[in-house]
């Protein structure tokens, strides 16, 4: 665990008792628990004190004070007995000789199960910091999916560790823990609505990661507090007067925004502290929902509103249960002020979130509403099933945790929460993975829309499916949710594997036949062990991918066989980039094709690395690669089965220059053509062909084929030509 060590672990230790820490916890619990429960807590404290006898924290305090303080944080939330006992005992199984069986015998099966869930989070074995962080997050999600109280205990544990992080001597360790807290635990606290914990975790992490920035903002806030105390009270007095005139009794408070949120806003908007106009937020708390909307109407009647700064989370709550009305107006002193309007119950839940109402507090099973609210936990588990690397899992779940959200509706009125930029495909996978896999089209607000359409808040989305439909590789280009990406990748991975198996099997069968042998799978079994593959399919995949040579495998199986001399193979056409790639040993420049396919670049559009491309299967010629906007593609509109989804490999450059065709108009004057060729040469381009299409007294129109490396290179040539006085216009040629 964090900040612990065990001096002289083998010697009996006299455990110093810290009565003030124990008493503080018991005083909090007496506020909502009876004597029998208090006795169980005292028993757990004694158990933890005994088991942690040989351990101290970096601060020098007895280690058992840490779990007691963690329990006190949960007691502030009025959590149930099992949660409090789990917090006290959560390190005993991991760090001492205590066992789960011992915990169950003394404190019950419920507590033992929770302690086991929390303990699993700490058993991290990874060599890299990033891997450790990702693996930690995976196990955290696994544990909390079984019981949300595991997450509550873990967040309280992290909060107390952050409060005492300054005792850790190594600054690198402090910063690593603070960064992990800011990236993972603070967003998790926000997602289950515990804003008080979230804000404290952010502020403590901010202090370790950006201490100078935090101190600067603290000093400026102190100055404003001393200079503007009258302004705050004036605004509260003014708001009170306006509401009382309307017959509304409300509790109004003013609150500074947190230092971390102020700093984030400064970074996001690239402004100085002095340029921020909404440092303060005012909260209006009333008794009923009807009064919330009454207050809103009164405030909007009394003060000018700021456009685009109104959000109604009462009619459409956040998935974590947060409810409130947010509006920004020009208040007294002509200052922009943010006002939050809510009931007392909403206010309690805004601070404590799931801890304010979690079903376990009154001993019943979670309600349907509770289950829906934490549905995102199951989505993360679904990603875990599809992603093999913990780093990939962390990357995909970060997409869900950190992006702004949009809220869309199913035809039945259920609210689906998605990241900003989500599409109908993301919506389909959010409903169920089977729905996503079988999606053929989608309706947005009753109208058929492209599957890459970005959804907006309030859209009603209907997904149309077919039984035999499968995911398309193109979907991965525009989906944004981790769940959608992982399912699409898994399907593509399995589909490609099947293709490589078929290709590899065909290649080895062809060699067997050419050498006069009857092929059967048993003949290849020795290869499985020799290449340390799990099964024969892995061998076929290796052959199909080009990692294993089919002829070399044949030679291994039949070392005494002498092959007949073979006729020379037909030479590949000059300019075939795939042949060049094979000879040079580099990767094929295009993804989406099985190695060995006959491929050529279409001369109608001259695709370059960086262009969006598509493959068209042509009888007798293999695959022709076109740019996505080539006019020739219109002739294949009625034969979608001939279209292949292909793309350039990341950072791909073919071995020699590719042709980009330009449509250029130059002035008809001496030296224009020479200037044109000089500009292209200076920008590392090479004219490979030139055709004048129109001559007039003043201008010449021509096609110029320029050898370049990729689209970026061609764009540089175009920019240079457009800056040349004798060039009237230059565009990339498209079409037939």
Strand order, sheet with most strands? 3-4-7-6-5
Task: Provide a count of the helices.
Answer: 29
CATH architecture of the largest domain: Orthogonal Bundle
The end-to-end span amounts to 67 Å
Q: How many domains make up the 3D coordinates?
A: 5
Helix content: 40-55%
User: What percentage of the residues does DSSP assign to strands (E)?
Assistant: 15-25%
Broad CATH class of the largest domain: Mainly Alpha
Low-confidence stretches: 1-12, 124-128, 566-588
The count of DSSP E runs of length 2 or more, i.e. the number of strands, is 22
- Helix/strand/pairing category: alpha+beta
Output the radius of gyration.
34 Å
Mean pLDDT: 79
How would you explain this protein's 3D organization?
This protein is an alpha+beta fold and 736 residues long. The protein has five domains: 4-213, Hypothetical protein af1432 (Orthogonal Bundle), CATH 1.10.3210; 228-353, Beta Polymerase, domain 2 (2-Layer Sandwich), CATH 3.30.460.10; 490-557; 577-648, no CATH class; 658-732, 2-Layer Sandwich (Alpha-Beta Plaits), CATH 3.30.70. It has 29 helices and 22 strands. A five-stranded mixed beta sheet has the order 3-4-7-6-5. Helix 9 packs parallel to helix 11. It is globular. The termini are far apart. The relative contact order is 0.04.
Question: How does the SSE layout of this entry go?
Answer:
Elements (H helix, E strand, L loop, with lengths): L3 E2 L13 H12 L4 H17 L4 E2 L7 H12 L4 H9 L2 H4 L4 H8 L1 H12 L8 H18 L1 H16 L7 H21 L3 H15 L1 H17 L1 H17 L5 E6 L2 H11 L10 E7 L2 H14 L2 E8 L12 E6 L5 E8 H9 L1 H4 L10 H6 L1 H12 L3 H13 L2 E5 L5 E5 L4 H8 L1 H5 L1 E6 L2 E3 L11 E5 L16 H33 L10 H6 L5 H10 L4 H8 L19 H8 L5 E2 L7 E3 L11 E6 L3 E6 L15 E2 L2 E2 L9 E10 L4 H11 L3 E10 L3 E10 L2 H12 L4 E6 L4
Parallel strand pairs: 4-7, 14-16
Antiparallel strand pairs: 1-2, 3-4, 5-6, 6-7, 8-9, 10-11, 10-12, 13-18, 15-16, 15-17, 19-21, 19-22, 20-21
Helix pairs in contact: 1-2, 1-3, 2-4, 3-4, 3-9, 4-7, 4-9, 6-7, 7-9, 8-9, 8-19, 8-20, 9-10, 9-11, 10-11, 11-12, 12-14, 19-23, 20-23, 23-25, 23-26
